[in-house]
Protein backbone atom coordinates (compact mmCIF):
# COMPACT_ATOMS: atom_id res chain seq x y z
CA UNK A 1 0.00 0.00 0.00
CA UNK A 2 1.55 3.30 -1.07
CA UNK A 3 1.48 6.45 1.06
CA UNK A 4 -1.33 8.16 -0.90
CA UNK A 5 -3.63 5.14 -0.51
CA UNK A 6 -2.76 4.86 3.20
CA UNK A 7 -3.74 8.51 3.74
CA UNK A 8 -7.00 7.94 1.89
CA UNK A 9 -7.77 4.85 4.00
CA UNK A 10 -7.11 6.88 7.15
CA UNK A 11 -9.42 9.69 5.98
CA UNK A 12 -12.25 7.32 5.10
CA UNK A 13 -11.71 5.36 8.32
CA UNK A 14 -11.87 8.52 10.42
CA UNK A 15 -15.21 9.49 8.88
CA UNK A 16 -16.60 5.99 9.34
CA UNK A 17 -15.32 5.77 12.93
CA UNK A 18 -16.75 9.17 13.89
CA UNK A 19 -20.12 8.27 12.35
CA UNK A 20 -20.19 4.85 14.00
CA UNK A 21 -19.27 6.17 17.44
CA UNK A 22 -21.82 8.99 17.37
CA UNK A 23 -24.60 6.82 15.98
CA UNK A 24 -24.25 4.12 18.61
CA UNK A 25 -23.03 6.23 21.52
CA UNK A 26 -20.05 3.95 22.07
CA UNK A 27 -16.46 3.45 21.00
CA UNK A 28 -15.82 2.81 17.31
CA UNK A 29 -14.66 -0.74 16.63
CA UNK A 30 -12.38 -1.81 13.79
CA UNK A 31 -14.64 -4.73 12.92
CA UNK A 32 -17.73 -2.52 12.80
CA UNK A 33 -16.32 -0.10 10.23
CA UNK A 34 -14.39 -2.60 8.10
CA UNK A 35 -17.45 -3.81 6.19
CA UNK A 36 -18.83 -0.38 5.18
CA UNK A 37 -15.32 0.87 4.43
CA UNK A 38 -14.57 -1.96 2.00
CA UNK A 39 -18.05 -1.90 0.50
CA UNK A 40 -17.88 1.80 -0.35
CA UNK A 41 -14.25 1.63 -1.52
CA UNK A 42 -13.72 -1.52 -3.62
CA UNK A 43 -10.12 -0.53 -4.39
CA UNK A 44 -9.27 -1.12 -0.70
CA UNK A 45 -10.13 -4.81 -0.90
CA UNK A 46 -6.83 -6.03 -2.36
CA UNK A 47 -5.15 -4.59 0.73
CA UNK A 48 -7.53 -6.31 3.14
CA UNK A 49 -4.68 -7.78 5.21
CA UNK A 50 -3.18 -4.34 5.85
CA UNK A 51 -6.37 -2.31 6.36
CA UNK A 52 -7.07 -3.31 10.01
CA UNK A 53 -3.58 -2.20 11.08
CA UNK A 54 -4.11 1.18 9.38
CA UNK A 55 -7.54 1.92 10.84
CA UNK A 56 -6.96 0.63 14.39
CA UNK A 57 -4.98 3.74 15.50
CA UNK A 58 -7.59 5.92 13.78
CA UNK A 59 -10.33 4.33 15.91
CA UNK A 60 -8.24 4.87 19.04
CA UNK A 61 -7.82 8.58 18.26
CA UNK A 62 -11.54 8.96 17.62
CA UNK A 63 -12.46 7.12 20.81
CA UNK A 64 -10.29 9.48 22.85
CA UNK A 65 -12.46 12.45 21.77
CA UNK A 66 -15.46 13.70 23.72
CA UNK A 67 -18.81 13.38 21.92
CA UNK A 68 -18.95 17.10 21.16
CA UNK A 69 -15.47 17.01 19.67
CA UNK A 70 -16.42 13.96 17.60
CA UNK A 71 -19.44 15.79 16.20
CA UNK A 72 -17.39 18.92 15.45
CA UNK A 73 -14.75 16.85 13.66
CA UNK A 74 -17.35 14.95 11.63
CA UNK A 75 -18.90 18.27 10.61
CA UNK A 76 -15.48 19.27 9.23
CA UNK A 77 -14.77 16.11 7.26
CA UNK A 78 -18.33 15.16 6.18
CA UNK A 79 -21.19 17.63 6.88
CA UNK A 80 -23.67 15.35 5.11
CA UNK A 81 -22.96 12.60 7.62
CA UNK A 82 -23.91 14.94 10.49
CA UNK A 83 -27.18 15.76 8.72
CA UNK A 84 -27.82 12.01 8.30
CA UNK A 85 -27.22 11.43 12.01
CA UNK A 86 -29.63 14.22 12.94
CA UNK A 87 -32.32 12.85 10.60
CA UNK A 88 -31.95 9.36 12.09
CA UNK A 89 -32.11 10.76 15.63
CA UNK A 90 -35.28 12.69 14.81
CA UNK A 91 -36.91 9.58 13.34
CA UNK A 92 -35.94 7.54 16.40
CA UNK A 93 -37.34 10.18 18.75
CA UNK A 94 -40.84 9.77 17.28
CA UNK A 95 -41.68 6.47 18.86
CA UNK A 96 -45.42 6.96 18.43
CA UNK A 97 -47.21 6.71 15.09
CA UNK A 98 -48.99 9.77 13.72
CA UNK A 99 -52.54 10.26 14.91
CA UNK A 100 -55.18 9.82 12.18
CA UNK A 101 -56.56 12.82 10.26
CA UNK A 102 -54.72 15.45 12.28
CA UNK A 103 -54.96 17.87 9.36
CA UNK A 104 -58.76 17.85 9.69
CA UNK A 105 -58.58 19.58 13.08
CA UNK A 106 -57.39 23.04 14.04
CA UNK A 107 -55.97 21.63 17.27
CA UNK A 108 -55.32 18.12 18.56
CA UNK A 109 -57.36 17.83 21.77
CA UNK A 110 -57.05 14.71 23.89
CA UNK A 111 -58.12 13.64 27.34
CA UNK A 112 -57.02 11.57 30.27
CA UNK A 113 -59.98 9.97 32.01
CA UNK A 114 -58.74 8.48 35.29
CA UNK A 115 -61.00 6.82 37.81
CA UNK A 116 -59.88 8.29 41.15
CA UNK A 117 -60.41 5.11 43.14
CA UNK A 118 -56.81 5.01 44.34
CA UNK A 119 -53.21 5.97 43.57
CA UNK A 120 -51.81 4.94 40.21
CA UNK A 121 -50.09 1.67 39.46
CA UNK A 122 -47.67 1.29 36.56
CA UNK A 123 -50.37 0.36 34.08
CA UNK A 124 -52.15 3.66 34.72
CA UNK A 125 -49.04 5.53 33.56
CA UNK A 126 -49.45 4.45 29.96
CA UNK A 127 -52.33 6.83 29.21
CA UNK A 128 -50.68 10.07 30.40
CA UNK A 129 -47.33 8.98 28.95
CA UNK A 130 -48.76 8.47 25.48
CA UNK A 131 -51.29 11.29 25.45
CA UNK A 132 -48.82 13.72 27.01
CA UNK A 133 -46.29 12.78 24.34
CA UNK A 134 -48.87 13.31 21.59
CA UNK A 135 -49.70 16.69 23.10
CA UNK A 136 -46.02 17.62 22.79
CA UNK A 137 -45.77 16.22 19.26
CA UNK A 138 -48.68 18.29 17.99
CA UNK A 139 -48.53 21.24 20.38
CA UNK A 140 -52.00 20.10 21.39
CA UNK A 141 -54.36 20.39 24.37
CA UNK A 142 -54.93 17.87 27.14
CA UNK A 143 -57.83 17.47 29.56
CA UNK A 144 -57.74 15.51 32.78
CA UNK A 145 -61.32 14.46 33.49
CA UNK A 146 -61.91 12.43 36.61
CA UNK A 147 -64.54 9.83 35.74
CA UNK A 148 -65.99 9.62 39.24
CA UNK A 149 -69.68 8.95 38.59
CA UNK A 150 -69.71 5.52 40.23
CA UNK A 151 -69.97 6.15 43.98
CA UNK A 152 -70.41 2.46 44.74
CA UNK A 153 -68.59 -0.09 42.60
CA UNK A 154 -65.52 2.03 41.90
CA UNK A 155 -65.88 4.35 44.83
CA UNK A 156 -63.64 7.43 44.57
CA UNK A 157 -60.81 7.88 47.03
CA UNK A 158 -60.76 11.53 48.09
CA UNK A 159 -56.95 11.56 48.28
CA UNK A 160 -56.61 10.14 44.78
CA UNK A 161 -57.66 13.32 42.97
CA UNK A 162 -54.60 15.31 44.06
CA UNK A 163 -52.46 12.17 44.04
CA UNK A 164 -53.20 11.54 40.36
CA UNK A 165 -52.39 15.14 39.43
CA UNK A 166 -49.09 14.70 41.29
CA UNK A 167 -48.46 11.48 39.34
CA UNK A 168 -49.07 13.26 36.02
CA UNK A 169 -46.60 15.93 37.14
CA UNK A 170 -44.07 13.22 38.08
CA UNK A 171 -44.35 11.90 34.52
CA UNK A 172 -43.54 15.37 33.23
CA UNK A 173 -46.92 16.61 32.00
CA UNK A 174 -49.49 19.19 32.99
CA UNK A 175 -53.15 19.09 31.90
CA UNK A 176 -54.54 22.24 30.32
CA UNK A 177 -57.75 21.76 32.27
CA UNK A 178 -58.89 19.50 35.12
CA UNK A 179 -62.56 18.64 35.74
CA UNK A 180 -64.47 16.19 37.91
CA UNK A 181 -67.40 14.48 36.29
CA UNK A 182 -69.22 14.50 39.64
CA UNK A 183 -69.34 18.30 39.34
CA UNK A 184 -71.11 18.03 35.97
CA UNK A 185 -74.12 15.90 36.81
CA UNK A 186 -76.59 18.68 35.94
CA UNK A 187 -75.00 18.89 32.48
CA UNK A 188 -75.59 15.17 31.99
CA UNK A 189 -79.21 15.57 33.13
CA UNK A 190 -79.69 18.34 30.58
CA UNK A 191 -78.42 16.16 27.75
CA UNK A 192 -80.50 13.21 28.94
CA UNK A 193 -83.59 15.39 28.57
CA UNK A 194 -82.47 16.45 25.10
CA UNK A 195 -82.01 12.78 24.24
CA UNK A 196 -85.54 12.01 25.44
CA UNK A 197 -86.88 14.81 23.24
CA UNK A 198 -85.01 13.30 20.29
CA UNK A 199 -86.76 9.97 20.89
CA UNK A 200 -83.51 8.37 21.99
CA UNK A 201 -84.32 7.21 25.52
CA UNK A 202 -86.96 5.55 27.66
CA UNK A 203 -87.35 4.64 31.36
CA UNK A 204 -87.30 0.96 32.26
CA UNK A 205 -88.22 -0.93 35.44
CA UNK A 206 -87.24 -4.37 34.18
CA UNK A 207 -84.92 -6.25 36.46
CA UNK A 208 -81.45 -6.91 35.17
CA UNK A 209 -82.29 -10.58 34.68
CA UNK A 210 -85.51 -9.80 32.79
CA UNK A 211 -83.84 -7.37 30.43
CA UNK A 212 -80.88 -9.70 29.84
CA UNK A 213 -83.28 -12.41 28.65
CA UNK A 214 -85.09 -9.97 26.36
CA UNK A 215 -81.84 -8.61 25.02
CA UNK A 216 -80.44 -12.07 24.35
CA UNK A 217 -83.59 -12.94 22.37
CA UNK A 218 -83.57 -9.58 20.54
CA UNK A 219 -87.02 -8.82 21.95
CA UNK A 220 -88.06 -5.28 22.89
CA UNK A 221 -88.50 -4.22 26.49
CA UNK A 222 -92.21 -3.64 27.31
CA UNK A 223 -91.33 -0.01 28.18
CA UNK A 224 -89.71 0.66 24.82
CA UNK A 225 -92.81 2.20 23.33
CA UNK A 226 -92.98 4.84 26.08
CA UNK A 227 -93.61 8.37 24.79
CA UNK A 228 -91.36 11.34 25.59
CA UNK A 229 -93.70 12.89 28.16
CA UNK A 230 -93.85 9.73 30.23
CA UNK A 231 -90.10 9.26 29.97
CA UNK A 232 -89.53 12.85 31.10
CA UNK A 233 -91.77 12.29 34.11
CA UNK A 234 -90.01 9.09 35.09
CA UNK A 235 -86.58 10.64 34.62
CA UNK A 236 -87.57 13.61 36.79
CA UNK A 237 -88.53 11.12 39.52
CA UNK A 238 -85.15 9.45 39.15
CA UNK A 239 -83.39 12.80 39.50
CA UNK A 240 -85.50 13.58 42.56
CA UNK A 241 -84.32 10.35 44.15
CA UNK A 242 -87.78 8.76 44.32
CA UNK A 243 -86.45 5.35 43.22
CA UNK A 244 -84.03 3.05 44.98
CA UNK A 245 -81.08 1.28 43.46
CA UNK A 246 -82.18 -1.20 40.79
CA UNK A 247 -85.77 0.07 40.53
CA UNK A 248 -85.45 2.28 37.46
CA UNK A 249 -82.94 2.98 34.68
CA UNK A 250 -82.91 5.26 31.66
CA UNK A 251 -82.02 3.36 28.50
CA UNK A 252 -80.72 4.61 25.17
CA UNK A 253 -83.03 3.41 22.39
CA UNK A 254 -80.82 1.70 19.79
CA UNK A 255 -81.64 -1.22 17.49
CA UNK A 256 -82.98 -4.17 19.44
CA UNK A 257 -81.86 -6.46 16.61
CA UNK A 258 -78.27 -5.28 16.74
CA UNK A 259 -75.92 -8.18 15.97
CA UNK A 260 -73.96 -7.39 19.12
CA UNK A 261 -76.27 -7.73 22.15
CA UNK A 262 -74.06 -5.35 24.15
CA UNK A 263 -75.28 -2.51 21.92
CA UNK A 264 -79.01 -3.17 22.45
CA UNK A 265 -80.76 -0.43 24.46
CA UNK A 266 -77.91 0.16 26.87
CA UNK A 267 -78.28 1.89 30.25
CA UNK A 268 -77.49 5.61 30.37
CA UNK A 269 -78.57 6.39 33.98
CA UNK A 270 -79.18 4.25 37.05
CA UNK A 271 -80.03 4.79 40.71
CA UNK A 272 -77.31 4.49 43.35
CA UNK A 273 -78.19 4.52 47.06
CA UNK A 274 -74.60 4.98 48.27
CA UNK A 275 -73.76 8.69 48.65
CA UNK A 276 -70.77 10.02 46.76
CA UNK A 277 -67.79 10.62 49.09
CA UNK A 278 -67.43 14.20 47.83
CA UNK A 279 -69.68 16.50 49.80
CA UNK A 280 -70.47 18.54 46.69
CA UNK A 281 -71.93 15.44 44.99
CA UNK A 282 -73.31 13.54 47.98
CA UNK A 283 -76.98 14.46 47.34
CA UNK A 284 -77.17 12.87 43.87
CA UNK A 285 -78.79 9.46 43.53
CA UNK A 286 -79.33 9.35 39.76
CA UNK A 287 -75.94 8.81 38.16
CA UNK A 288 -74.89 8.54 34.50
CA UNK A 289 -73.13 5.44 33.28
CA UNK A 290 -69.59 5.99 32.02
CA UNK A 291 -70.47 5.57 28.35
CA UNK A 292 -73.07 8.35 28.57
CA UNK A 293 -71.03 10.72 30.73
CA UNK A 294 -67.85 10.26 28.71
CA UNK A 295 -69.61 10.69 25.36
CA UNK A 296 -71.18 13.99 26.42
CA UNK A 297 -67.94 15.37 27.81
CA UNK A 298 -65.84 14.33 24.83
CA UNK A 299 -68.13 16.42 22.65
CA UNK A 300 -68.44 19.40 24.97
CA UNK A 301 -64.67 19.63 25.40
CA UNK A 302 -64.09 19.27 21.64
CA UNK A 303 -61.98 16.14 22.03
CA UNK A 304 -60.57 15.24 18.61
CA UNK A 305 -58.73 11.99 19.37
CA UNK A 306 -59.44 9.25 21.91
CA UNK A 307 -57.08 6.46 22.93
CA UNK A 308 -58.61 3.63 24.90
CA UNK A 309 -58.14 -0.07 25.58
CA UNK A 310 -59.21 -2.63 23.04
CA UNK A 311 -61.60 -4.02 25.66
CA UNK A 312 -63.60 -0.79 25.28
CA UNK A 313 -64.33 -1.17 21.57
CA UNK A 314 -68.04 -1.46 22.31
CA UNK A 315 -67.97 1.91 24.06
CA UNK A 316 -67.33 3.74 20.82
CA UNK A 317 -70.21 1.86 19.18
CA UNK A 318 -72.61 2.56 22.04
CA UNK A 319 -71.64 6.20 22.13
CA UNK A 320 -72.08 6.39 18.38
CA UNK A 321 -75.85 6.13 18.89
CA UNK A 322 -75.79 9.23 21.12
CA UNK A 323 -73.75 11.15 18.58
CA UNK A 324 -76.21 10.19 15.86
CA UNK A 325 -79.16 11.42 17.95
CA UNK A 326 -77.43 14.73 18.65
CA UNK A 327 -75.98 15.14 15.16
CA UNK A 328 -72.40 15.24 16.45
CA UNK A 329 -69.21 13.97 14.82
CA UNK A 330 -67.44 11.26 16.78
CA UNK A 331 -63.74 11.77 17.62
CA UNK A 332 -60.98 9.71 16.03
CA UNK A 333 -60.43 6.56 18.10
CA UNK A 334 -57.30 4.45 18.58
CA UNK A 335 -57.48 1.22 20.54
CA UNK A 336 -54.53 -0.46 22.19
CA UNK A 337 -53.96 -3.84 23.79
CA UNK A 338 -53.30 -4.63 27.42
CA UNK A 339 -49.86 -4.40 28.98
CA UNK A 340 -48.27 -6.79 31.40
CA UNK A 341 -45.32 -5.90 33.61
CA UNK A 342 -42.67 -8.40 34.64
CA UNK A 343 -40.71 -8.48 37.91
CA UNK A 344 -43.60 -7.93 40.33
CA UNK A 345 -45.52 -10.49 42.36
CA UNK A 346 -48.38 -8.00 42.89
CA UNK A 347 -50.99 -7.64 40.08
CA UNK A 348 -51.50 -4.33 38.28
CA UNK A 349 -54.79 -3.81 40.07
CA UNK A 350 -55.77 -1.00 42.42
CA UNK A 351 -58.04 -3.29 44.41
CA UNK A 352 -55.34 -5.98 44.70
CA UNK A 353 -52.75 -3.48 45.91
CA UNK A 354 -55.23 -2.06 48.44
CA UNK A 355 -55.87 -5.58 49.68
CA UNK A 356 -52.15 -6.33 50.09
CA UNK A 357 -51.68 -3.10 52.04
CA UNK A 358 -54.67 -3.81 54.28
CA UNK A 359 -53.34 -7.29 55.02
CA UNK A 360 -49.87 -5.96 55.85
CA UNK A 361 -48.15 -7.63 52.91
CA UNK A 362 -47.12 -4.19 51.63
CA UNK A 363 -46.13 -1.22 53.78
CA UNK A 364 -47.98 1.24 51.54
CA UNK A 365 -48.32 2.46 47.99
CA UNK A 366 -44.63 3.43 47.93
CA UNK A 367 -43.37 0.06 49.18
CA UNK A 368 -40.48 -1.02 46.88
CA UNK A 369 -42.39 -4.23 46.16
CA UNK A 370 -45.48 -2.39 44.89
CA UNK A 371 -45.90 -1.89 41.11
CA UNK A 372 -46.89 1.75 41.60
CA UNK A 373 -45.67 5.14 40.48
CA UNK A 374 -45.30 6.17 44.11
CA UNK A 375 -42.90 3.28 44.62
CA UNK A 376 -40.82 4.12 41.55
CA UNK A 377 -40.64 7.78 42.51
CA UNK A 378 -39.51 6.94 46.03
CA UNK A 379 -36.88 4.61 44.62
CA UNK A 380 -35.49 7.46 42.55
CA UNK A 381 -36.75 6.47 39.09
CA UNK A 382 -37.37 9.56 36.98
CA UNK A 383 -40.83 9.95 35.49
CA UNK A 384 -39.32 10.55 32.07
CA UNK A 385 -37.88 7.03 32.14
CA UNK A 386 -41.35 5.59 32.66
CA UNK A 387 -42.66 7.70 29.77
CA UNK A 388 -39.85 6.54 27.48
CA UNK A 389 -40.56 2.88 28.19
CA UNK A 390 -44.32 3.33 27.79
CA UNK A 391 -44.09 5.19 24.48
CA UNK A 392 -41.71 2.55 23.17
CA UNK A 393 -44.61 0.08 23.44
CA UNK A 394 -46.53 2.16 20.89
CA UNK A 395 -50.29 1.91 20.48
CA UNK A 396 -50.74 -1.50 18.90
CA UNK A 397 -53.91 -3.49 19.51
CA UNK A 398 -51.71 -6.43 20.49
CA UNK A 399 -50.92 -7.07 24.14
CA UNK A 400 -47.49 -5.82 25.17
CA UNK A 401 -45.01 -6.80 27.85
CA UNK A 402 -43.41 -3.88 29.66
CA UNK A 403 -39.99 -4.94 30.87
CA UNK A 404 -38.78 -3.13 33.97
CA UNK A 405 -35.32 -3.34 32.43
CA UNK A 406 -36.55 -0.89 29.77
CA UNK A 407 -37.52 1.60 32.49
CA UNK A 408 -34.23 1.05 34.30
CA UNK A 409 -32.23 1.51 31.10
CA UNK A 410 -34.03 4.75 30.30
CA UNK A 411 -33.53 5.94 33.87
CA UNK A 412 -29.84 5.08 33.80
CA UNK A 413 -29.44 7.33 30.77
CA UNK A 414 -31.03 10.17 32.75
CA UNK A 415 -29.24 9.83 36.07
CA UNK A 416 -25.84 8.25 35.45
CA UNK A 417 -24.14 11.44 34.32
CA UNK A 418 -25.11 13.45 37.38
CA UNK A 419 -24.87 10.78 40.08
CA UNK A 420 -21.84 10.62 42.37
CA UNK A 421 -20.28 7.31 43.30
CA UNK A 422 -19.74 5.84 46.76
CA UNK A 423 -18.84 2.55 48.45
CA UNK A 424 -21.32 0.37 50.33
CA UNK A 425 -20.23 -2.92 51.87
CA UNK A 426 -22.93 -5.48 52.70
CA UNK A 427 -22.34 -8.24 55.23
CA UNK A 428 -18.86 -6.82 55.70
CA UNK A 429 -15.99 -9.04 56.80
CA UNK A 430 -13.36 -7.25 58.86
CA UNK A 431 -9.73 -7.68 57.83
CA UNK A 432 -6.65 -5.95 59.30
CA UNK A 433 -4.54 -3.91 56.86
CA UNK A 434 -0.75 -3.48 57.01
CA UNK A 435 0.96 -0.59 55.24
CA UNK A 436 -0.27 1.67 52.48
CA UNK A 437 -1.72 5.19 52.54
CA UNK A 438 -4.09 6.44 55.23
CA UNK A 439 -6.90 7.13 52.74
CA UNK A 440 -8.15 6.12 49.33
CA UNK A 441 -9.09 8.62 46.65
CA UNK A 442 -11.47 7.09 44.10
CA UNK A 443 -13.11 9.50 41.63
CA UNK A 444 -16.43 11.15 42.47
CA UNK A 445 -17.48 10.09 38.96
CA UNK A 446 -15.29 7.86 36.78
CA UNK A 447 -16.04 9.82 33.60
CA UNK A 448 -15.69 13.30 35.10
CA UNK A 449 -12.29 13.86 36.65
CA UNK A 450 -13.17 17.56 36.99
CA UNK A 451 -15.53 16.64 39.84
CA UNK A 452 -12.55 15.61 41.91
CA UNK A 453 -11.89 12.64 44.12
CA UNK A 454 -13.35 11.31 47.34
CA UNK A 455 -11.46 10.94 50.59
CA UNK A 456 -12.14 7.48 51.98
CA UNK A 457 -10.16 6.94 55.21
CA UNK A 458 -8.37 3.70 55.95
CA UNK A 459 -6.84 3.20 59.38
CA UNK A 460 -5.84 -0.32 60.34
CA UNK A 461 -8.74 -2.50 59.03
CA UNK A 462 -11.29 -2.63 56.25
CA UNK A 463 -14.68 -4.22 55.63
CA UNK A 464 -15.01 -6.28 52.44
CA UNK A 465 -18.00 -8.16 51.12
CA UNK A 466 -17.46 -11.90 51.68
CA UNK A 467 -17.19 -12.62 47.97
CA UNK A 468 -14.40 -10.04 47.60
CA UNK A 469 -12.10 -11.40 50.32
CA UNK A 470 -9.02 -12.83 48.53
CA UNK A 471 -7.95 -16.33 49.25
CA UNK A 472 -4.75 -16.89 51.18
CA UNK A 473 -1.86 -15.59 49.06
CA UNK A 474 -4.12 -13.90 46.49
CA UNK A 475 -4.38 -10.18 45.80
CA UNK A 476 -7.16 -7.64 45.27
CA UNK A 477 -7.02 -3.97 44.41
CA UNK A 478 -8.88 -1.75 46.88
CA UNK A 479 -10.35 0.78 44.49
CA UNK A 480 -8.82 4.21 44.85
CA UNK A 481 -6.32 2.96 47.42
CA UNK A 482 -4.09 0.19 46.07
CA UNK A 483 -3.20 -3.53 45.99
CA UNK A 484 -3.16 -5.89 48.95
CA UNK A 485 -2.30 -9.56 49.41
CA UNK A 486 -3.97 -11.87 51.93
CA UNK A 487 -1.25 -13.10 54.26
CA UNK A 488 -2.59 -15.19 57.13
CA UNK A 489 -5.85 -13.23 57.24
CA UNK A 490 -4.18 -9.82 57.04
CA UNK A 491 -4.26 -7.60 53.96
CA UNK A 492 -0.71 -6.47 53.27
CA UNK A 493 -0.09 -3.53 50.93
CA UNK A 494 2.12 -4.74 48.05
CA UNK A 495 3.11 -1.38 46.52
CA UNK A 496 2.48 -2.65 42.99
CA UNK A 497 1.21 -0.54 40.09
CA UNK A 498 -2.17 -0.58 38.34
CA UNK A 499 -0.70 -2.85 35.66
CA UNK A 500 -1.41 -5.83 37.93
CA UNK A 501 -5.09 -5.19 37.29
CA UNK A 502 -4.72 -4.85 33.53
CA UNK A 503 -2.06 -7.50 32.95
CA UNK A 504 -2.53 -10.01 35.75
CA UNK A 505 -6.29 -9.85 36.24
CA UNK A 506 -6.24 -8.72 39.88
CA UNK A 507 -9.82 -7.93 40.90
CA UNK A 508 -10.81 -4.36 41.81
CA UNK A 509 -13.12 -4.31 44.85
CA UNK A 510 -14.95 -1.68 46.90
CA UNK A 511 -14.37 -1.32 50.61
CA UNK A 512 -14.87 0.88 53.67
CA UNK A 513 -12.86 1.52 56.78
CA UNK A 514 -13.86 -0.99 59.45
CA UNK A 515 -14.55 1.71 62.05
CA UNK A 516 -15.05 5.01 60.24
CA UNK A 517 -18.18 4.41 58.19
CA UNK A 518 -21.90 5.16 58.02
CA UNK A 519 -24.64 2.57 58.78
CA UNK A 520 -27.04 2.21 55.85
CA UNK A 521 -30.35 0.40 55.44
CA UNK A 522 -31.17 -0.17 51.78
CA UNK A 523 -34.79 -0.99 51.04
CA UNK A 524 -35.14 -3.24 47.99
CA UNK A 525 -37.81 -5.26 46.18
CA UNK A 526 -36.46 -8.33 47.98
CA UNK A 527 -36.44 -6.83 51.47
CA UNK A 528 -34.16 -4.61 53.53
CA UNK A 529 -30.39 -4.88 53.21
CA UNK A 530 -27.96 -3.55 55.83
CA UNK A 531 -24.49 -2.26 55.07
CA UNK A 532 -21.76 0.24 55.84
CA UNK A 533 -20.93 3.13 53.54
CA UNK A 534 -17.93 5.40 53.26
CA UNK A 535 -18.17 8.44 55.60
CA UNK A 536 -18.73 10.98 52.80
CA UNK A 537 -22.18 9.56 52.18
CA UNK A 538 -23.27 11.40 55.33
CA UNK A 539 -22.77 14.71 53.52
CA UNK A 540 -25.62 14.00 51.10
CA UNK A 541 -29.25 14.84 51.80
CA UNK A 542 -32.70 13.35 51.38
CA UNK A 543 -33.69 12.87 47.71
CA UNK A 544 -30.08 12.83 46.50
CA UNK A 545 -29.12 9.93 44.26
CA UNK A 546 -25.91 7.94 44.66
CA UNK A 547 -24.48 4.97 42.89
CA UNK A 548 -23.07 2.45 45.30
CA UNK A 549 -20.31 1.00 43.16
CA UNK A 550 -20.88 -2.61 42.09
CA UNK A 551 -24.27 -2.48 43.84
CA UNK A 552 -26.49 0.03 42.06
CA UNK A 553 -28.23 3.38 42.19
CA UNK A 554 -30.06 4.43 45.34
CA UNK A 555 -32.12 7.37 46.51
CA UNK A 556 -31.41 8.74 49.99
CA UNK A 557 -34.72 8.62 51.81
CA UNK A 558 -34.10 9.42 55.47
CA UNK A 559 -31.32 10.50 57.80
CA UNK A 560 -31.65 9.78 61.51
CA UNK A 561 -28.52 10.69 63.42
CA UNK A 562 -25.65 8.92 61.70
CA UNK A 563 -27.85 6.29 60.08
CA UNK A 564 -29.14 6.49 56.50
CA UNK A 565 -32.11 4.81 54.88
CA UNK A 566 -31.90 4.47 51.11
CA UNK A 567 -34.22 3.01 48.49
CA UNK A 568 -32.62 0.80 45.86
CA UNK A 569 -33.32 2.20 42.39
CA UNK A 570 -31.76 -0.39 40.09
CA UNK A 571 -28.36 -1.75 39.14
From TrEMBL:
GO terms for cellular component: cytosol. A motif ('HIGH' region) lies at residues 114-124. Residues 508-557 form the tRNA synthetases class I (E and Q) anti-codon binding domain. Residues 420-488 form the Glutamyl/glutaminyl-tRNA synthetase class Ib anti-codon binding domain. GO terms for molecular function: ATP binding; glutamate-tRNA ligase activity. The keyword Repressor does not apply. It comes from Haloglomus irregulare. Residues 430-455 are annotated as: Disordered. InterPro entries: Gln/Glu-tRNA_Ligase (IPR050132), Glu-tRNA-synth_arc/euk (IPR004526), Glu/Gln-tRNA-synth (IPR000924), Glu/Gln-tRNA-synth_Ib_cat-dom (IPR020058), Glu/Gln-tRNA-synth_Ib_codon-bd (IPR020059), Rbsml_bL25/Gln-tRNA_synth_N (IPR020056), Ribosomal_bL25/Gln-tRNA_synth (IPR011035), Rossmann-like_a/b/a_fold (IPR014729). Catalyzes the attachment of glutamate to tRNA(Glu) in a two-step reaction: glutamate is first activated by ATP to form Glu-AMP and then transferred to the acceptor end of tRNA(Glu). One of its GO terms (biological process) is amide biosynthetic process. The gene is gltX. Keywords: Aminoacyl-tRNA synthetase, ATP-binding, Cytoplasm, Ligase, Nucleotide-binding, Protein biosynthesis. SUPFAM superfamilies: Nucleotidylyl transferase, Ribosomal protein L25-like. This is Glutamate--tRNA ligase. Belongs to the class-I aminoacyl-tRNA synthetase family. Glutamate--tRNA ligase type 2 subfamily. It is found in: Cytoplasm. Residues 107-415 form the Glutamyl/glutaminyl-tRNA synthetase class Ib catalytic domain. Its EC number is 6.1.1.17. Residues 444-455 have a biased composition (Basic and acidic residues).
Amino acid sequence: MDEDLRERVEREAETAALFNALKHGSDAQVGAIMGPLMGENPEFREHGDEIPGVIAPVCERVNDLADEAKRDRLAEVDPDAVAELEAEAEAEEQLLPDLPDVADHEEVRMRLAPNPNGPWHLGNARMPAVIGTYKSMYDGWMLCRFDDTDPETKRPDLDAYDGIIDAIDYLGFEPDEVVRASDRVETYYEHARDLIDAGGAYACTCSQEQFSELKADAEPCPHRGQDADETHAEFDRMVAGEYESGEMVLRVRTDIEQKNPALRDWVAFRMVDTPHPREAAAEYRCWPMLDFQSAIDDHLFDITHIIRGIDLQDSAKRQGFLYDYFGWEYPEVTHWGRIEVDEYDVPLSTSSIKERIAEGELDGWDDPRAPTLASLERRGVRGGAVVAAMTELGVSTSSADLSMSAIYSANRERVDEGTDRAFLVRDGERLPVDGGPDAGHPPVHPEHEDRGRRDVPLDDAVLLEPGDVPAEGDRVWLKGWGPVRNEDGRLVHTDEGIEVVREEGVDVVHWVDADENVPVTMRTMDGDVSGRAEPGVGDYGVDDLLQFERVGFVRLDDVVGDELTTYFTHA
